[in-house]
Amino acid sequence: MQLYIGNKNYSSWSMRAWLVMTHFGIEFTERPLRLDWAEGSEFKSTLLALAPTGRVPLLIDDGFAVWDSLAITEYLAEAFPAKQLWPAERRRRARARSLCAEMHSGFPALRSRCPMNIEASLPEVGTRLVAGWPDVTAELRRIDAMWSEALAASSGPFLFGAFGIVDAYYAPICVRAQTYQLPLGITAQAYAARILALPAMHEWSTAARAEHDFVEEDEPYRQRP
């Protein structure tokens, strides 16, 4: 298997698929591409030659392309059933899928106003956003309630007991909470800390900080040395 990903510092969707494969020991070759949405860029031309979306993550399995992080993780769950990427019980599995779908299609304020940026520390930005943007605060309240409810019902340290796809889906929110020092309750903070302490998460974050690269349109205030 080959997994095409973008910059580890920014690409939250890439992180989700990569984290699942790495944590569960699914062998793959990493194919990193520098994020560049311009038509004709190496990023776009490479991906469009493999799949119609031109986006990451993209999984290639023996020449077969699977795009979109949710489709990729579902594909992996079917390919490796013994690894139990989803909860075993039907209703818990359905609830975990519901939480993933909510992340996949929701939380637009957090995604747009707090882009993932692992190497940065921006608490002052987080303070301004929480004070000035009610949509950000509302989404944080929903995440706090969601995590707290799932953790209270689980028998383990993660949302449905053992680490699974749903935890990988919320890992970028844990990163954002750290970067922007976003307010979360004690239970949610402890959960985010456990996600950030995972060996696979540590590996991704270390590589992200070693990139020493940035995308100008995301961080126009920075200058290259």
Key attributes of the depicted protein:
four-stranded mixed beta sheet; alpha+beta; globular; Glutathione S-transferase Yfyf (Class Pi), Chain A, domain 2; 225 residues
Descriptive report:
This protein is an alpha+beta fold and 225 residues long. The chain folds into two domains: 2-82, 3-Layer(aba) Sandwich (Glutaredoxin), CATH 3.40.30; 87-206, Glutathione S-transferase Yfyf (Class Pi), Chain A, domain 2. The chain has helices spanning 12-23, 42-48, 69-79, 90-105, 108-113, 123-132, 134-153, 165-180, 186-196, 199-210; strands at residues 2-5, 29-32, 58-61, 64-67. Strands 2-1-3-4 form a four-stranded mixed sheet, covered by helices on one side.
Unreliable residue stretches = none
The radius of gyration is 17 Å
Percentage of residues in strands: 5-15%
What count of domains describes the coordinates?
2
The order of strands across the largest sheet is 2-1-3-4
Give the ordered list of helices and strands.
EHEHEEHHHHHHHH
Mean pLDDT: 95
Terminal Cα separation, in Å? 36 Å
What sort of overall outline do the alpha carbons produce when their principal axes are compared? globular
User: Number of DSSP helices?
Assistant: 10
Task: Classify the helix fraction into a percent range.
Answer: 40-55%
Return the CATH class of the largest domain.
Answer: Mainly Alpha
Sheet bearing the most strands, described? 4 strands, mixed
Q: Report the CATH topology name of the largest domain.
A: Glutathione S-transferase Yfyf (Class Pi), Chain A, domain 2
